[in-house]
Amino acid sequence: MALDRKLAPNDLRAFWMPFTANRQFKSAPRMLVAAKDMYYTSADGRQVLDVTAGLWCCNAGHCRPKITEAIQQQAAEMDYAPAFQMGHPAAFELANRLVDIAPDGMDHVFFTNSGSESVDTALKIAIAYHRARGEGTRTRLIGRERGYHGVGFGGISVGGIVNNRKFFGSLLNGVDHLPHTHLPENAMTKGQPEHGANLADELERIVALHGAETIAAVIVEPMAGSTGVLLPPKGYLEKLRAITKKHGILLIFDEVITGFGRLGSAFAAQHFGVTPDMMTTAKGLTNGVIPMGAVLATAEIHDAFMSGPPNVIELFHGYTYSGNPIASAAGIATLATYREEGLFERAAELAPYWEQAIHSLKDHPHVIDIRNMGLIGAVELEPIEGQPTKRAFDIFVKAFEAGIMIRTTGDIIAMSPPLIISKAQIDDLIGKLGDVLKAAA
Ligand code: PMP
């Protein structure tokens, strides 16, 4: 039965919307009321092609019956159970299934409810890990310019987005940032760019400045999604891995977007052949259907906490909803769907088609860069002088009217469709987006 959720204009007042121009939205709302596979249905009854997998999360497409049924069944059987000093089977099963698809050596899973919580959890584990091993001076954290690690105080401190930081006080102490890797000489590169691996050497400079014995961890997105699909230059992640290993610093990959098949492997770590010490995940873990995140850690990290008396809590950290039964059931069904439908392999197979499709937009007005990898891509537009973000935002609105849901960040259009997208739907996207770009000029 369809849910009847008709709203009068005044009913929009109470919800203070996140990362939204509230007044603009409420003057001309873009309302979604249903979803199936690759499409949303808008409130005015139009089918809108979802080219963003919701918010980079619905990797198997929308309203997949197996996931829906798993949630319904778990909700009816046991709605909630705590994971503090208690357990229930679904959380343990999901942890095992995650370890099955993770890079070798990632053997332990700490559940959270979001990407932001995964990031703050990983940062806390990193500091506590060194302390547990008698290296309590290792407390400094290193992030990267233009990094996005969610909106907790830890995440915005290591993150590198000015607007996410500057309104919120002094943030965490003891944080440094590597330079971002978005270089003009890599413009219009297909796949991984050539220039910029040397930017990882900046880590040596930071280590020399503070001393390795003060540094706990480096956190980066192996491929930055939210800040406009910024790809790691060839050799860059390998260098970061080598330098962190040399100095006993933990390397954390924030795989909140790159996890669960986006690049054609379960995780970006496998795609790039570089294994970190921890990975943060969320989004595609439950196909976006129920909030859930997870931190994956090596046995070395986990075991460092396990040497005290066995009846004493080892890590003073956790959430009321860590390993929530309904979220766990959704996660198990989601991973089964990815596996049974071969969706990670499908993303890898479609990647060359996707690459040539999005690069075909290069001659459109105001396009200054196009980037792609796996089933993710970005079209960067020349900003309107004095009005940054306006050009892309206008295109986002027009694209929605034309029946495609894209996402914009600054003047960059980002696209990350569900991994079930067909070639015909990719063609449809390119045709419609091309028309919108032309019309906007
Ligand atoms: N890390 C990365 C790399 C992300 O892309 C995001 C969300 N886009 C987050 C963390 C935060 O996730 P959440 O919004 O679930 O807190």
From TrEMBL:
Ordered alphabetically, the record's keywords are: Aminotransferase, Pyridoxal phosphate, Transferase
Q: Which GO terms describe its molecular function?
A: transaminase activity
Cofactor(s) this protein requires: pyridoxal 5'-phosphate
Q: Which family does it belong to?
A: Belongs to the class-III pyridoxal-phosphate-dependent aminotransferase family.
The UniProt entry, under PANTHER family, shows: ADENOSYLMETHIONINE-8-AMINO-7-OXONONANOATE AMINOTRANSFERASE, BETA-ALANINE--PYRUVATE AMINOTRANSFERASE
Name of this protein: Aspartate aminotransferase family protein
Q: List the source organism.
A: Paracoccus pacificus
- Highest classification ranks of the organism: Bacteria, Pseudomonadati, Pseudomonadota, Alphaproteobacteria, Rhodobacterales
